[in-house]
Every structure is written in C-alpha cells, then in structure tokens.
Write a structure and sequence with these properties.
Helix content is 43%, strand content 19%. The protein is an alpha/beta fold and 321 residues long. It has a seven-stranded parallel beta sheet with strand order 3-2-1-4-5-6-10, sandwiched between helices. A three-stranded mixed beta sheet has the order 7-9-11. A two-stranded parallel ribbon has the order 8-12. The longest helix is centred in the first third of the chain and has 21 residues, at 80-100.
Length: 321
C-alpha cells in the first residue's frame, strides 16, 4: 500500500481528489491542511504548509505528495501572501520531502503563468504572468525545477490547469453561471472571446493518472477540456441546461472598464472587497485559450466531456441544489 499526502486537500479540488483516490485499495491517503476537511475529517491532519517541522513529521512514510495549498483569489491582501504561501509553501514541502526521502511531487500551478490574451500557449511558450498570483506560481515552479536538478531520481509533475469548475465550487465560474441562470447577467464586450475551461472531475482524474506514473522525470502539462467555448457559447449551454431563454444586456468594453474602475475606487475608499473589479472585468473579456495537446498525447482519457461537466454542475447547483 502506498501512502499519498495531499497538502491543501480540504478545498474544492482536494476533496474531489480524496474521493477518487479513496476508491483504490492500494492507496492510503492523508490530507494535510490548515483547515479541517468537512468531508474527510478522519484523515485530515491540521498543519500550515509553512510549518516545515510539523510537515516533516506528518510526511513520514509517505511515497508521493500532491501540493494543492495556495493563495489564489483575485483580491488577496496583502499581495505578499501570494509569495509567502505559493512560493514559501513549495520550499517548505520540498524540505519536508527531503527529510523523509520522498522523491515524487505533483504540483498544481496555473495557466496564469502565460499572462492574458496569448495565442493558444503550449508548455513551451514564453512565461509572462500579468498578476501576483501568476508570478508566484511561476516562482514556485522554478523552486521545484531547482529541486529536481539537484535531487537524483526525482519525479516532478507540474499541472497548469485553466479555470476549474464543478459541483460545490464557489469560484469565478460558479459566480458567472449563477449570474447567467438568474437572468441578471451583463455581457461586457462582444462575447466572442473564447475561454478554456476544465471540469474538476477530469482534473482529479489526471492527478490520479500522474500519481500512477512511476518513471522519474520533470513534466509540465497544461490542462483544459476541449472544445473551447466563447462567452456567447457558454450562455447558450446554460440556456440549454436550464431549458429556458435568458435575457442578456450588453455593454461595450470601454464602458464596462469605466464602471469597474469606479468599483476599484469604492473598494479602496471603503476598504471592502467587492465582487466587481477592473481585474475581473479584464479577465472576463480576455481570450484565454491554451494548448492541451501534451495531455491528450500522454495516454490520459478524460472521463467527462466538457458539456457533460457543465450540465452536471448547472443541474447540481441551479436546478436541483
């Protein structure tokens, strides 16, 4: 029996990953997180990823680590937290792994390392993050790369997923789907900008696939479920899943950005985190498509089609919650 440690497994992706891995009689799973898991409290050990001594103790007997712990929201303050957790967490995890002789790590990075409005970047494309989240994820990757270079027989898998959605998620895609389904959706721009998306069921299936890879090496994978959808296509899919036509108001991009800067000013004055910001409007209107040929050529077969993942999510959250 192999013992797998998931660091930061109490959240959305981690909970689904534990659910999948727990079906294998050959695996023992431990969740290490600073927050208790609502679903798997019996296998959860409370520990901050930056607490290297305690992390070292908890990784005893572990054969592989999946590092999910991260600061990832758009409005994290202070911004230094991105680097403290995302980069410092990688350093702490690798130090604890070294102390226990663990050679295998899977790290969830992000396509944010490529920046916005790039033309279908692949794993070989230039790194050009536009925000602190993307910069911190890239710096964490560099730490992992340096560790691999100095560690014999190391096995490193870097997964760069696009925006992830699914049942029970409360991230940006959920907020978007909620707005569309409620009929209070405001389309900014033409709606022709395309978005790569990833269903959580496929993400955790690929993580399990990577855990089963035994050969040492350093591999980087983009992950997105194809085909990419335009914002107009996404609205159509929601309408189909809900079986009703939804009203949509359209604003030109320049007007949407003017309004967003107003919300930025209001947030600064009131010192409150608002749901609308210039960063979110820019991300909404940006084309974010990514090449996932390497994943498709790896032998991995996604268990769910993108439309199926969208339908399952919409029905779970907005039809029969």
């Amino acid at each position: 029996m192999r013992k797998i440690a998931i660091i930061g497994g109490s959240g959305f992706i981690g909970t689904r990953l534990i659910s999948l891995l727990s079906t294998s009689p050959e695996l023992e799973v431990v969740n290490i997180d600073k927050a208790q898991s609502a679903t798997y409290p019996s296998i959860t050990k409370i520990c901050d990823v930056l607490d290297t001594p305690k992390l070292t103790e908890l990784l005893q007997g572990v054969s592989a680590v999946v590092l999910l712990a991260a600061e990832h929201k758009d409005n994290v303050t202070p911004k230094s937290l991105y680097y403290d957790v995302n980069v410092g967490g990688m350093k702490s995890a690798l130090a604890a792994m070294d102390a226990n002789g663990i050679k295998k790590i899977i790290f969830t990075s992000s396509v944010a390392v490529y920046g916005l409005n790039k033309v279908n970047p692949s794993e070989q494309s230039a790194i050009d993050p536009f925000n602190d989240y993307g910069k911190s994820k890239w710096q964490a990757e560099e730490v992992a790369m340096s560790w691999y270079d100095r560690t014999p027989d190391a096995d490193v898998t870097i997964l760069r997923p696009t925006v992830v959605f699914g049942e029970a998620n409360r991230g940006n895609v959920y907020n978007l789907l909620k707005q569309i389904s409620s009929g209070k959706f405001l389309m900014i721009g033409s709606g022709n900008n395309c978005k790569s998306m990833a269903y959580v069921g496929n993400i955790v299936a690929f993580l399990a696939f990577a855990l089963n890879k035994q050969a040492p090496g350093y591999e980087v994978y983009n992950y997105t479920d194809k085909p990419d959808l335009s914002m107009n296509d996404l609205v159509d899919k929601v309408e189909l899943a809900l079986d009703r036509k939804l009203p949509a108001i359209r604003f030109p991009y320049w007007l949407g950005m003017c309004g967003a800067y107003g919300f930025d000013l209001l947030a600064a004055v009131t010192r409150k985190k608002l749901t609308i910001s210039s960063v979110r409007v820019k991300k909404f209107c940006a084309t974010t498509q990514f090449d996932s040929t390497k994943v498709l050529n790896s032998g991995f077969v996604p268990p769910f089609k993108l439309e199926e993942g969208l339908s399952r999510t919409i029905k779970s959250e907005f039809v029969k919650p």
